[in-house]
Write a structure and sequence with these properties.
This protein is α+β, with helices and mostly antiparallel strands. 19% of the residues lie in helices and 45% in strands. It is globular.
Length: 170
């Protein structure tokens, strides 16, 4: 009887080794097949311009730094603070400053892109509530590769002192 239990134990041990081996293989394959986050963006000095309560749109600004060796393309910005969120740029045309929507912005490899007053910015239109100085607005930036990054932007009347706010830089 003792041999039978030993034989049963050996069979059980062999099955367990097979299961562990199979699981190890699946984990290894899964780690190779799963996407690696290539978008290493850092967001600094995010802020939203405070407006009077009767104004239903405002703009958001920030510095986006790409720490990777490949350019990263931002294709969407979303926020529950507004019915519509769009990326815009200011440009001079026929001696007139105009603003138009852009459908993506590219953050060069190992470089930065500025959403800044007078240049590229994020428009929040159809605000869902009045934004007061000191409030925080959550913005979600989505890249072409499908990765998203959430940032909290402070509502302010003026840019933060440490913000780099050139007229137009990227």
């Amino acid at each position: 009887m003792s041999q039978t239990l030993d034989q049963i134990s050996m069979v059980g041990l062999k099955k367990m080794h097979c299961v562990v081996g199979l699981l190890s293989t699946l984990l290894l394959l899964g780690s190779v097949a799963s996407p690696v986050r290539a978008d290493s963006l850092t967001i600094d000095n995010a802020w939203v311009r405070a407006m009077p309560p009767s104004v239903k749109s405002t703009a958001a600004y920030m510095k986006v730094t790409n720490g990777s060796d490949s350019p990263v393309e931002i294709v969407e910005v979303a926020s529950e603070a507004a019915d519509m969120v769009q990326m815009h740029e200011h440009s001079m045309k026929d001696g007139m400053m105009s603003m138009q929507q852009v459908f993506s912005v590219q953050v060069p490899a190992n470089s930065e892109f500025m959403f800044a007053p007078g240049g590229h910015h994020i428009m929040l239109m159809g605000l869902t509530a009045a934004l007061e100085e000191g409030d925080s607005v959550e913005l979600t930036l989505t890249t072409k590769s499908g990765n998203s990054q959430v940032v909290q932007a402070q509502v302010m009347k003026n840019p933060p002192a440490e913000a780099d706010t050139p007229v137009h830089a990227h």
